[in-house]
Design brief:
Layout: E1 3-7, H1 12-24, E2 31-34, H2 38-46, E3 58-61, E4 64-67, H3 68-76, H4 94-112, H5 123-126
């Protein structure tokens, strides 16, 4: 089953999160694409979503698409311990989880910075990215 993470490629927090996920994804389950990429545009079209939505990480698992805090928790569920235990927060009502998620998303450039271009993965990481 495909497990794809779409992320804001110019966001420092998002890039650091991708590197964190790669480091803790012991079974190499996830593939990645920048939300600014053509691959992302094609994937989002499968779900009839606009490709200019850059305020949320997007997680595709099989034929399901998740956004915001639900996406983050679904991703965490597949990471090695202790990170997978963050999934317990799925019991918190979605509006409450997303309230805090949106505060971070809205301020991510101000708090963590922004790159002028998407990150270029190392040759070893490149095989995990969708072109």
């Amino acid at each position: 089953m495909r497990k794809i993470i779409l992320f804001d490629g110019v966001c420092n927090l998002c890039n650091q999160s991708v590197q964190f996920i790669i480091k803790h994804d012991q079974h190499s389950l996830f593939s990645f694409a920048s939300l600014q990429s053509e691959a992302s545009t094609r994937l989002l079209a499968e779900f009839n979503l606009p490709s200019n939505q850059l305020d949320s990480v997007i997680y595709i698992e099989g034929k399901q698409l998740y956004t915001e805090s639900t996406a983050a928790l679904k991703i965490a569920k597949h990471l090695k311990s202790p990170w997978k235990f963050a999934y317990v927060f799925i019991i918190v009502p979605t509006p409450l989880r997303n309230f805090f998620y949106k505060i971070i998303a809205k301020n991510r450039y101000k708090w963590f910075g922004k790159q002028s271009a998407c990150m270029i993965p190392t040759p070893d990481m490149k095989k995990r990215f969708i072109d």
